[in-house]
Amino acid sequence: MRVHLDHNATTPLRPEAREALFFALDRLGGNPSSVHGAGRAARALLDEARERIAGALGVDEDDLLFTSGGTESDNLALAGVLGASGPGATLVTTTIEHSAVLEPARRFAAEGHPLTLVGVDAAGRVDLEELTEAAAGATLVSVMSANNELGSTVDVGRLVAALRDRYGREAPWVHTDAVQALGKLPLDLAGDDVDLASLSGHKVGAPVGVGLLVRRNRAPLRALVIGGGQEAGLRPGTENVAGVHAFAIALELAVAEQISFAQTARSHVEKLWNGVQKFSPAVRLLGPPLADPTRLPNTLNILLPETDGRTLVARLDLAGLECSAGSACASGSLEPSHVLRAIGLDEERARAGLRLSTGRTTRVDEIAHAVEILSRTLGRTT
């Protein structure tokens, strides 16, 4: 039996999303921008998906911009706001953001947009007071709702309130990468009054290649791509109707099941952690304590002394356990995880992290089998 514990990288396509995807592919052949019957049918399905997603997220339909995924949504949020705000627009973000935020941020800095990176504590937690102080005069603040490697989270609503309380009308726009939070933690974009939020379909059982940027409060945006009027002209190009339709189904279900999923995921993670501790007493938990109710419930990152995470991942894969040594988007890099370096680990220890992330399809017997595989494999590597 193979066990997949890399759900933070991607999740299996939900049966309901698969059915929705093939329904749309089989029944629709028109461009949603066309005015003939086939085009109107495609537009109707796209509009229905927009309505369903807006309802599930508690935002307005006009707030939704469909993209190809989380990376594009992050890029559009950052480049869109800075580009629309003109020369000298400034960005504040943190040292543990996804590369889809940090890499464009550094490019913008090289192009003359001042950049401030705020550090985190040893558990990967952001000090909101420090972040608020760093945002003085900033154009945009971008912060993850939940970190994909450590499971640490940010109370974005508190951040927005603190920024507006301190800076009033001069408060910066706030963007959150909520890719990992969706379906795992309460996500109240309207209640938090966040301006921009990035989401990704394949993290909640939708197909790869569809995502979303939620844009509220008339946040300024400049399109990255030009050549069409789709998505209010901010993300031109023919919409991926089938993918968006499947995304709507998966997102609705993920939001509806969030509480029960979180409870199950916490139980699975506790079993994993207790099992690993029994055969490897020197193992160290990375990120917030498991008892922290704000942490990402499905994520376990452990530090295994005198091991190389990438080598261990390969050995575990051969033994039947699929996991990762960090973010999937950086898995081909020879560099240690920038997230683990940001929490104070030296280069050697930052290579020794192992991320296990559970998902909707994870079963109790798979957790037990994963512990057995880890025990056998670590016994040969330590």
What does it look like?
The protein is of the alpha/beta class and 382 residues long. It has two domains: 133 residues, Aspartate Aminotransferase, domain 1 (Alpha-Beta Complex); 242 residues, 3-Layer(aba) Sandwich (Aspartate Aminotransferase, domain 2). It is 42% helix and 13% strand. It contains 13 helices and twelve strands. The strands form three sheets. Strands 2-8-7-6-5-3-4 form a seven-stranded mixed sheet, with helices on both faces. A three-stranded antiparallel sheet has the order 9-10-12. α7 links the parallel β6 and β7. α2 packs parallel to α8. The longest helix has 22 residues. The chain starts with a strand and ends with a helix. The mean pLDDT is 94.
Record the SSE blueprint:
Layout: E1 3-4, H1 15-27, H2 37-57, E2 64-67, H3 70-85, E3 91-94, H4 99-110, E4 115-118, H5 128-134, E5 140-144, H6 156-167, E6 173-177, H7 189-192, E7 196-200, E8 211-215, H8 241-256, H9 258-279, E9 284-286, E10 299-303, H10 309-319, E11 321-322, H11 338-342, H12 347-350, E12 353-357, H13 364-381
Parallel strand pairs: 1-11, 3-4, 3-5, 5-6, 6-7
Antiparallel strand pairs: 2-8, 7-8, 9-10, 10-12
Helix pairs in contact: 1-8, 2-8, 3-4, 5-6, 9-13, 10-13
